[in-house]
Amino acid sequence: MTDFLDGMKLPQGNEQEELEQLSKDKLRPLFDLRKFQIREEIYRDKGIDLDIELKYNGKHTNFRFIIQLKATDSIEANSDGSYSKSIDTANIQYLLNSGKPSYYILYHKKSEEFYYSNMSDFLKTMESKTKAWDAQLTNTLRFKSKVNKEVLEGIYQGVLIYGKNFRKLNEKIALSTKDNFGKISITDKKLNFYSENEIRDKLEQFGLGLINEGNSKLVINGSNIISKSVYSKRPKFNLVLAIAHYNTGNMLSALANLKETGKYLEKLDKEDLSLHQYFTAAVKYSLGLLDSQEYAEVMDSIEESSFIQYYIEIDKLGRKHTDSLDNYSLQAYKRESDKILDKQDVPNTIINLANTEYYKYWSLDLNIRSLQNSMLLSKEVYNQHVIDAGQEILNQLDAIQSFHETTVKKIIEDKDYFNYWLLDTHRINYHFESFLIDVDIPLQSLPLF
Question: What residue ranges define each of the domains in the chain, with the CATH number in brackets?
Answer without folding.
Answer: 15-166 (3.40.1350.10), 183-303 (1.25.40)
